[in-house]
Amino acid sequence: MKPILLAIFSLYFFNQSFAQSAYPIEGKWKPEGFSNTLYILASGKQYTYYCVNQNCDSLFNTYEAADGNHLPNPHDYTFINSTLVIDLNFGNFLNSPIQFDCDGNIALFQSNGSQWIRLNTNLNDCTSSGLTTEANTEPIIYPNPAQEQINISFDSPSKGQISLLDLSGKVVLVEQIHGKELALDLASFHAGIYMLVIETDLFSFERKIVLVK
Question: What is the C-alpha separation between 21 and 35, in angstroms, rounded?
Answer without folding.
Answer: 26
